[in-house]
Model the fold of this input.
Amino acid sequence: MFQRLPEADAAARVAFTLDGRPVEARVGDSVAAALLAAGRSDCRTTPVSGAARGPFCLMGTCFECLVTIDGLGNRQACQVAVREGMRVETQQGKREVGR
Amino acid sequence: MTTAARDHDVAVIGGGLVGSAVAWGLARLGRRVVVVDEGDLALRASRGNFALVWVQSKGLGMPAYARWTVQSVGLWDAFRDELRAQTGVDLCYQRPGGFHLALSEAEMERRADLLARLQAQPGMPEAGYEMLSRAQVLKMLPAIGPEVVGGSYCPLDGHVNSLRLLRALHQGMQALGVAYVPQARVERIERRDGGFAVRAGTHDLRAAQVVLTAGVGNQALGESVGLDVPVRPQRGQLIVTEKAAPFLHHPVVTVRQTDEGGIMIGDSQEERTDPVVGPAILATMADRAQRMFPLIGSLNVVRTWAALRVMTRDGFPIYEQSATCPGAFVATCHSGVTLAANHALALAPAIARGELPADTFSTFSARRFHVPAAA
Done:
């Protein structure tokens, strides 16, 4: 659905994992942008109904892009820049306490 | 535009947890009730509730209050069932037993001493309190931190979804025909034609009886109907976190996990009259909660708020019918959630009959504040 513009595509590569599987991103991507560019439009299920949710506002106000990053849950993917080796995990329902 | 005067059996002043429980209780007996509610800018003590349905440590200095509390808990299941059957709202009332945790040996001793003094009072009801060691607490609350040395436990303690409670009471009372007049601040109550006239803005309401359930506002309102209601506001602050998967299966008096998963923290009792949060108090509350349950530390706080709750001179309720203006009642308390069942199912029927039986209610009269101090 989303494609990088040519100038964005030319930036240096960054590798992270999503649910253990390797994903390639670019320096400067937010985790949310990297997920969208990798073809993932959903990153969690909402605790309220179990429906799939994903990045929406991309500016930190909607709280839909919540993922677990390096073991810490309910991080806003649009507010975190990807780093090499980052472990991103999708979330199911409520935040697991301790993560 | 003036609302035409209408006749009601009872005018309930204040539509919070106490007023709506009384109104619902009266309406289910067939009384024609109007609830006059001040509105969003009122002090709204209900906002400061912690959703506990709590028995533990109540009644030091007034065993009748402990009995009244245990009676209410005994009615809570039936109260919950009736509201659910009538409105479809599930209150999520849980009674897994509750804790008061000690973070030091000194706290543990003070707690044990308090419970011993409490239980030594004649007339205390059976409530099954016990002091538990750290090992015993750990079995029931595996998430406790290393500083918890033990605590007190009472199997009758529980909690409820208080947002749904207020919602169910309002929905239920209106379904039973209660007239709800919101955004209306009562300016004057007068005796008229054998009943009462209540003036609130453009509303001019007539009722045979009037019940004051306006929290801190009861004191001023009481003056015009011969009721002495010495109450003062007491600030409390609350913190709520994002929703987490369930891990805290028993409420602690200052930390609980709601049915939806958020952690609520509430620990302050401040003699202040401004409903404003203070970072120093919030930090202390959060620190204690995290020392009790370290896992809470990683959760995001979603909201903090302050509210002014109602405190009588001795902390115990005032239930009374005016001697000079019979038909005018006051009901004010600190524990509007715990006592909601009693207010609906024991107090309302007494008001409907026009009399608060002395054996249950005389201890709660404000006359208790007029006993001359010992020389």
